Amino acid sequence: MTGAGATPRTRCPEPDVSGAAGALHVATGAQVRRILAAELKPHLVRFCASLVLLIAGSALGLVTPRLMGGLVDLVRDGHPLLGHTGTTAVWFAAGAMAAAVVAMAVLTGFGYVLMAGTVERVIASLRERVIAGGIGMTAERIEEVGVGDLVSRTTDDVAEMTRAVNQSLASLAIGGFAVVVTIVGMALLDWRFLGVAVLLLPVYALFVHRYRRHAPDAYLCQRMEMAQRASGILASLRGLRTVRAFNLQASRRSGIGDHSWRAVELGVWIRILINRLFGGVNLAEYLGMSGVLVIGWFLVDHGEVTVGVVTTAALYFLRLFQPIGMLVVLIDPLASAAASLRRVVGVIVEPDSRPAEPAGVVSGIPAGTAPRLRIEHLTFGYPGGRTVLDDITSEVAPGTVTALVGASGAGKSTLGALIAGCRPVESGRVVIGTTDASTLTAGQRARAVCLVTQGAHVFAGTLREDLLLARPGADDPALVDALRRVGAGDWVDALPEGLDTVVGERGQVLGPVEAQQVALARVLLIDPPVVILDEATAEAGAGGGAALEEAAWNVVRGRTAVVIAHRLDQAARADEVWLMESGRIVERGSHRELVEQGGAYADLWAAWSLGR
């Protein structure tokens, strides 16, 4: 910090509300209002009913101060109260106060429950939509923005928004209605008591404005720093071996520590803003009560109101302390929730441009056939980097297997990702059968082309649930058959509960070979006409390599397939081999033809075969 009265040294950039420049959207106010209005619409009657009950409960809260003022006039001047005097008036007043308190509690309680139920439903829907939005993002978009920001929004921001809204929104409504109703009650006693509101409004406005000028951006910046910290931690954990191999622990720790410290600085700055705000509220309360007593003294001195009326006005203003304090307390969590809400809604509006998912089979790619795969003038480069693929034109014959070989960085995996639709084609096109792949939706593309990489993921749940992701509704014989065709029959039979065995996190841990067999079994269940294997057997090691290799060939048999080969014996089994270099296909032909040509592939094969 630069001092008690200064902002922290840590400054964050203006939040990006466009989703450009490698950042997820931070929703605008209009986008937030649109999403909230859409989510609230089905619950509008329930929400309005809660507002009516809360307003009625707040109005009943004026009964006790009004009767207390009447008791003062009864004792001091003998004025009748509720049509009675003496002890009878006191008993009637006490009964009315008790009835008003009970009715207020009942109405406020029902209103609170109705509002809380509405809020829970809206939050639950928002939570589902933000998860769906995150899952719906394309792989290249997630890579562009960083997984840390997305994880932070779908966890930290959703949790913060849920906590703050659940605890604050109903209290905000109760406090707000109490303030409005009490001010109206003071005006009904004598309009000159509104002078107190005129006196206090600039004071409250000044301190709240000072808080609101800095706090929302401070909270948003703090969330951004937390997201950067999460991204750094996740990246370090994923690349832990590399970090240790290159002795990068200190630099990685330093970067994460910088983001953590800036988040702490912003947290302290936020606390200073809160303390200033409460100091202003205390000043306003002192000035307000003084104003009520001064105005009341003037009115009583001129005989325009009774002492009981002034007592009522003072009790009304005293009654404002709690709701105003409540509102001030809520400014902080609501400011934090507002920042989180903008980030959460940013994830929801992010995939708005995705095409709708029509039902039905893939147009132009008949089921059960192996289509021709054509690549026409395909050019691609990553943002800010060199061209990875340079005007590639080639073709995979129907029902054949083509192996891609070449040095690391030659563009093999990028080409596979473009064919599978994991990345958008910038220039050129991919044609599956007679269908331009760019015209397919994500769902259609997923049913037409399956990409299997070396990092297979096993979802937490039963093995049956994991497989049904590929073909919902498939029966057990179909699931077991798929597993047996990829060589997983023996270990599946040994599972304690068969297909009902919980696998993945907190369940039966599957090794790299077993996890890849599950992934290959999913491909068989989807039954796509085109399959891309991107080093899908690389994680098998020496022990399970042969079994997993055979499983992979069982999957591609009868389909149009592209195999990104990490071992040249895979290329030897393929119908055709493409040797890639610097984003181009420099040699192509069968394994035998390329070896006989004596070119670069032949040299690779000779080096590979040496000593084997």
TrEMBL record:
<protein>
    <submittedName>
        <fullName>ABC transporter ATP-binding protein</fullName>
    </submittedName>
</protein>
<dbReference type="GO" id="GO:0005524">
    <property type="term" value="F:ATP binding"/>
</dbReference>
<keyword id="KW-0067">ATP-binding</keyword>
<dbReference type="InterPro" id="IPR036640">
    <property type="entry name" value="ABC1_TM_sf"/>
</dbReference>
<keyword id="KW-1003">Cell membrane</keyword>
<dbReference type="GO" id="GO:0016887">
    <property type="term" value="F:ATP hydrolysis activity"/>
</dbReference>
<keyword id="KW-0812">Transmembrane</keyword>
<dbReference type="Pfam" id="PF00664">
    <property type="entry name" value="ABC_membrane"/>
</dbReference>
<feature type="transmembrane region" description="Helical">
    <location>
        <begin position="277"/>
        <end position="300"/>
    </location>
</feature>
<dbReference type="GO" id="GO:0005886">
    <property type="term" value="C:plasma membrane"/>
</dbReference>
<dbReference type="InterPro" id="IPR003439">
    <property type="entry name" value="ABC_transporter-like_ATP-bd"/>
</dbReference>
<feature type="domain" description="ABC transmembrane type-1">
    <location>
        <begin position="49"/>
        <end position="336"/>
    </location>
</feature>
<dbReference type="InterPro" id="IPR011527">
    <property type="entry name" value="ABC1_TM_dom"/>
</dbReference>
<feature type="transmembrane region" description="Helical">
    <location>
        <begin position="44"/>
        <end position="68"/>
    </location>
</feature>
<feature type="transmembrane region" description="Helical">
    <location>
        <begin position="169"/>
        <end position="187"/>
    </location>
</feature>
<keyword id="KW-0547">Nucleotide-binding</keyword>
<dbReference type="GO" id="GO:0015421">
    <property type="term" value="F:ABC-type oligopeptide transporter activity"/>
</dbReference>
<feature type="transmembrane region" description="Helical">
    <location>
        <begin position="88"/>
        <end position="114"/>
    </location>
</feature>
<dbReference type="InterPro" id="IPR039421">
    <property type="entry name" value="Type_1_exporter"/>
</dbReference>
<feature type="transmembrane region" description="Helical">
    <location>
        <begin position="193"/>
        <end position="209"/>
    </location>
</feature>
<keyword id="KW-0813">Transport</keyword>
<keyword id="KW-1133">Transmembrane helix</keyword>
<dbReference type="InterPro" id="IPR027417">
    <property type="entry name" value="P-loop_NTPase"/>
</dbReference>
<feature type="transmembrane region" description="Helical">
    <location>
        <begin position="320"/>
        <end position="341"/>
    </location>
</feature>
<dbReference type="InterPro" id="IPR003593">
    <property type="entry name" value="AAA+_ATPase"/>
</dbReference>
<keyword id="KW-0472">Membrane</keyword>
<keyword id="KW-0997">Cell inner membrane</keyword>
<feature type="domain" description="ABC transporter">
    <location>
        <begin position="373"/>
        <end position="607"/>
    </location>
</feature>
<dbReference type="Pfam" id="PF00005">
    <property type="entry name" value="ABC_tran"/>
</dbReference>
